[in-house]
## 1
Amino acid sequence: MCPVCQARFRGSTECSRCGADLGTIMGLAAGAWRMREAARQAIAEGDVARARALATQAQEICRSAAGRDLEMVSSWLAGASLEMDKASP
């Protein structure tokens, strides 16, 4: 959404309502999306520490509800992994 007038993105780097330059914001949102995808892949590969770091970094750049959920799941998995490591002899 446009930070100036709250209009939705419409595939242009200029806001269709107020004319604000959205290029930088769109780039940050796309970067955060790529980090979330990489976090999901890291979970699939069993690298929960990397997934947690990527999900957290993505949320710091561009918050979203799906990102929050991914961050919570990856944090939980990382904590569960640490507990399993402590229990192993």
## 2
Amino acid sequence: MTIFLGIFVAAAAAFSGLAYSVANSKHFLVIDRLLQRRLFVREEKPFSRALSLIFAPKLMVLWDCLLAVVLILGGQFLAAAWALGTLAFADLCGIAVKHLIKRQRPYNHAETKTGWSFPSGHILGATTMIIIVWTLFGSQLSGALLAGLIILGLTIAFARLDAGAHYPADLVGAALLGFACSSISIWIWQILLAIIH
């Protein structure tokens, strides 16, 4: 159980350092902008657009609700509540940080992309959902599931860069925040399971 507290502390510390750099370091921002312009500036491809749509933060809530329905039908009420609560907690943290940092999106992003850039809501939701799915089903399925989930997460990250909607730090920050929120949620869930049983 303490491993999840360790993951939380490490991810939260790394995220805090990154968020501080995004908010306060002009040198960091220059490097982040150079990376974004040099490596990832291109026209958004249909595949990237489709991934961005399928894994949009609002649709991620729908996927989480569908997962909760499946869990409830299987009699796993606590797991369903935990899955819903974990994504809601991560999303609320992400929204709070977005409004605290208020980082503008890259200059070359599509005009239809609105909202703040740091952290990426798509990657925050994807990271959190990947951890939720792995926590609930990882012991029952092979390591291929984890590999597939990681590949999916990385593909979504590159799709967001392809769309010109984010800087690299936005994606790393979102993944770190997803790890921090999920690990503290897993820790709380394990305490609840220990109390119930």
## 3
Amino acid sequence: MNMDQGIVGSIFTVVVFISFIGIVWWAFSSRNKQRFDEAANLPFADEAKEENIKDKQES
């Protein structure tokens, strides 16, 4: 069986498209919303910890 480059390219395109749709579905599913919200706030949590440490050192 001899596959030409067009068929292989088409199969690859379909696989990549299905993977893209799966990643988008996963990223926007409501099941992951809480985890992503917590991850989005992590930089602010670090800033609050640093401020608390500086306040304790100054007093």
## 4
Amino acid sequence: MTRNEARDIADAGFVHIAADPELVGTLLAQSGSDVAGLRVMAARPEFAVFVLDFLLEQDQRVLDFAQAAHIAPQRVQMARAVLGGGDPW
């Protein structure tokens, strides 16, 4: 998986989160920010890792996202590893 593919998965994850008010509320609470602050955070490169970590925190979250994105759940973990600089295997 390339960094661009990993970034695309993180971006799709953020879109998925943004479409669910409950997930948005939880993400805001975890970030300690409001919507305006979240917009500022979204412009930072590490935000993609934050989004993937958020999705990976709960099995059901990552499964729901993977199903909606039509990808294998393992690809979310791989994307996290690629963006975090680690080897996924």
